[in-house]
Every structure is written in structure tokens, then in C-alpha cells.
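Box 3.1 A note on notation
Throughout this textbook, protein chains are presented in two layers. The first layer is the amino acid sequence; the second is a C-alpha cell string describing backbone geometry. Keep the layers aligned when reading.
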Amino acid sequence: MDWDDLRIFLAVARAESLSGAGRRLNMDASTVGRRVARLEAAVGAALFAKTPQGYALTSEGGRLIAPAEAAEKAAAAASEATRREAGISGQLRIGAPDGCANYLLPQVAQKMCETHPRLEVQIVSLPRVVNLSKREADMAIAVSPPDTGRLTVQRLTDYRLHLAAHRDYLDRHAPITELDDLRGHRMIGYIPDMIYDRELDYLSETGIETAQISSNSVSVQMQAIRAGAGLGIVHDFAIPFAAGVRRVLTDRISLTRSFWLLRHADDRASRRLTLLADQLAQGLRAEVARLEAL
């Protein structure tokens, strides 16, 4: 059985579509379909059933997942054995919430690529937790540790958030010195039914229930605050990127959250990914500390 066919089989199983697998493999969907058909002919059974939701594994396909993943792991180990530690190359895909992806990971990725010139870093920012079981990424950063899944979890660092507004907004309104002064102000925050992790429910800790301007993206919220549209909870590490944004009521409203690094349990034996995970963790801690000190 050809390992390359198994690689394509796993991509379809994880993406649940030929086009999604093709994007991950940099391959035409029609080519992916032909390769799946070739593998099905080789094993003598249908591996996928086409449904309105996409390509679902048949019982025969489900039984092939474990040996295919074992072959994937063996291929990665063989590749690692021929690669010198000082010259880590290839692709590293990191999933992260958009605040981390926008304000921290670009600088961390830049330093990792300087250390490993042949490394390609991909940053995936999604309004949900990245699915490592479907191999949407090699590793992911989350704002809370997961309760389920075959994952290794490492606490990375704490970070702080405060209520903030642009100086133009503050100049147009009466001074804010007490929590009661927030009544009547326009608030900016998350769309309530799109908060995918309880740790992102920032405004509830201020006693404010409604945001007049809301988005599922913290970066969009920051742009609204920069535009002078109102007040919102922002990451301290994002403030250096937003000229004119000032923290408000720092003695009354101060939140602390944590970043967690998630990896698939099967990747623990990968020296390459472990080295890159260590560099990612060190870089993220240093960048949070640097930006919060500005």
C-alpha cells in the first residue's frame, strides 16, 4: 500500500471534503478524488460515503485510520532522522485565537524563521478552538485547557486585559472615575452567542451585559475602539499597536487570563515538533512580557 495514498486518505478524512484536502495538500480536488479511488481499488472497499455534509468515513475507512496514522507517524520519524537539528525545515502550522494570532505570533514566527531559515510558519486564526485531531494544525494555542481529546497540554503564560478607549472618545465624554460612570457609554465586545470559550466573556466581569458594537473578532473590536466608537476590554499586549488607546479604571477592572499550548498526543515522540514547541513557548512568553511592559 502506497504511503502517499494513505496521506491523501488521511487528509480527506480530516477535512471531510476533496477540496479541503486538496487545499491542505496543494493538490487539485480531482486529483485527490482519483487517488482516493485508487486506494479504494487497492483495498477492495469503499472508504468514504458522500453525504450532504461532505465525505464521511465508511466502517472500512474507519478501520484504516489507525494504521494510516501509524504510517504517518513512522514517515515523520524517518524524515526527522535524516534532518539535522540545526536545520529544521518544512511546514509548521499554528492555530491560535485572533488576539494572539494578530499581536503576538507574527513576531514569534519571525524569530523562529530567523533561527531556521528553511522553516515555513503558517498561522491559522479561527473563531473557535483548532481541531488537532483533524490535523487542522500541528499545535494550537488556546485560552483554556480542553476537557477532552488525546492532547498534551502545557500552560504558557498569563496575560492581562483592561477596559480601554481611544483618547478622542474620552475627550468627548465626562471623566470616568467610577464603575457607575460607565452607564450611558457605548460598549464594544463579543457577540454573546459566538463566545466559544467562557474565558472570552470579558464584559460580564464588569457588570455590563450589552455591547452596542460587537464582533466575534477581538481585532475588529480593537479597531472599533481605535475609531473612537466606545469602550471595550482589550489585551494589554495589543495596546502598543493601537496609538491613542488608553486604559480606563485600571484599579477597578483588571482581568488575567492564560494561554495554553495544545499538541496531539501522538506527536510527543517527534523531536522536531518538541523543539519547535519549546521555541514557540519561549517566544510567546517573552513577547507578552515585552509588550505588557511598554
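Residues 167 and 244 are 6 Å apart (CA to CA). The two ends are 56 Å apart (CA to CA).
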